[in-house]
Amino acid sequence: MSETWHNSFGDTAIPSAKIVTTSTSITSGGKKYIGADTTGAVLTVTIDSADIGPDGSQIIVKDEEGNAAVNNITLATEGAQTIDGSATGLINTAFGSAILFTRGGNLFRLD
């Protein structure tokens, strides 16, 4: 399912992707907001290299169902890019999120 979200100023549309509970992995696929549902299992969200765009781009991953404390969300990249200097990141709190900021071809968490 795809929707359009707007920032708090109402002027920037953010394409979104809702992850189904039967999936254990998903790629970002050009989406800038990924609403994760880990009700049934852990989940790996892989950020496509093509989505790590120009410096200052953002990708948001959110535990929408509140299950990440039990079924963690692992954040990964498809290439040699890093997340805060590591190969992966983790969302492991209920209703947790990761705001990922791009710079120099890598991702940095702002949350």
| Beta-strand percent range | 35-45%
Helical coverage, percent range: under 10%
The first-level CATH class is given as Mainly Beta
- Poorly predicted spans: 1-11
Order of helical and strand elements: EEEEEEEEEE
Looking at the structure, the CATH topology is Jelly Rolls
- The helix/strand class is mainly beta
Gyration radius (Cα, Å) is: 13 Å
Summarize the helices and strands and which ones pair or pack:
Elements: E1 4-6, E2 13-18, E3 25-27, E4 33-36, E5 43-47, E6 58-63, E7 73-77, E8 88-91, E9 97-103, E10 106-109
Parallel strand pairs: 2-4, 3-5, 4-6, 5-7
Antiparallel strand pairs: 1-2, 6-9, 7-8, 9-10
Condensed summary:
The chain has no helices and ten strands.
Describe the protein in words.
With about 110 residues, the chain is mainly beta. It has one domain (about 5-110): Jelly Rolls (Sandwich), CATH 2.60.120.640. Helices cover about 0% and strands about 40% of the residues. The protein contains no helices and ten strands. The protein has strands at about 5, 15-20, 25, 35, 45, 60-65, 75, 90, 95-105, 105-110. The chain has a six-stranded mixed β-sheet with strand order 1-2-4-6-9-10, with no helix packed on it. It has a four-stranded mixed β-sheet with strand order 3-5-7-8, with no helix packed on it. The chain starts with a strand and ends with a strand. Residues about 1-10 have low confidence and may be disordered.
